[in-house]
Design goal:
- The protein is mainly α.
- The chain has one domain.
- Helices cover 62% and strands 0% of the residues.
Amino acid sequence: MTGVAELVGSQSWLTAAGWVGIVLATVALYAAAAFELEGARQRRVLPLGRRGSARTAVGGELDQQVAQLAREAGVRQQL
């Protein structure tokens, strides 16, 4: 949006770009706080919107969490 504001030279585009920046900064601060609290307390404190395999990787049982580990990149088939 800032690029468009520079090309057009309109004050309304600069204002919109500023508000989008404020929203993005707020979302980034929320996510950082949620991840830090989750790491410190070893449980989910603030919702992050995880779905599917991401939710299983964090909140599932140990056998569910490591089920796909053998197929991950960098894991050797044989030593």
